[in-house]
């Protein structure tokens, strides 16, 4: 039985992107090379989100103290070029928009949001 982490390995990701490309082959054939590259990048992001959700479903769904399923946040850092990194973040359950720029999140999700904010601040040369 594969583990949730096994689903984010390169082979399953490539298989998922290939399935999306096959399903959308008629659109892909009409695209120029730059559009194809953008589509493949977008499909890879979709694949990460879907496989992360599948992995969460395979994981331990034991109830937490408040009676609900545990919250999850998965951050995937992926090489996307010689000196570039793609960052994918997926939250289960989905974050709740509370309005006013506030979101409702579980403790794990809140910690992931803080990490993403720190990464974003580190990426911004004008920050700090």
Explain what this protein looks like in three dimensions:
This protein is an alpha+beta fold and 128 residues long. Helix content is 48%, strand content 20%. The chain has helices at residues 10-23, 25-29, 33-58, 107-123, and strands at residues 72-81, 84-92, 96-99, 102-104. The strands form 2 sheets. The protein has a two-stranded antiparallel ribbon. A two-stranded antiparallel sheet has the order 3-4. Strand 3 and strand 4 (102-104) form a beta hairpin. Helix 1 crosses helix 3 (33-58). 13% of the residues are buried. The model has no long low-confidence stretch (mean pLDDT 81).
Largest sheet: 2 strands, antiparallel
The fraction of residues assigned to DSSP E strands is 15-25%
Oligomeric state as shown: single chain
- The secondary-structure class comes to alpha+beta
* Computed Rg: 17 Å
Question: How do the helices and strands follow one another from N- to C-terminus?
Answer: HHHEEEEH
Topology:
Blueprint: H1 10-23, H2 25-29, H3 33-58, E1 72-81, E2 84-92, E3 96-99, E4 102-104, H4 107-123
Antiparallel strand pairs: 1-2, 3-4
List keywords for this structure.
two-stranded antiparallel ribbon, 48% helix, alpha+beta, 4 strands, 128 residues, globular
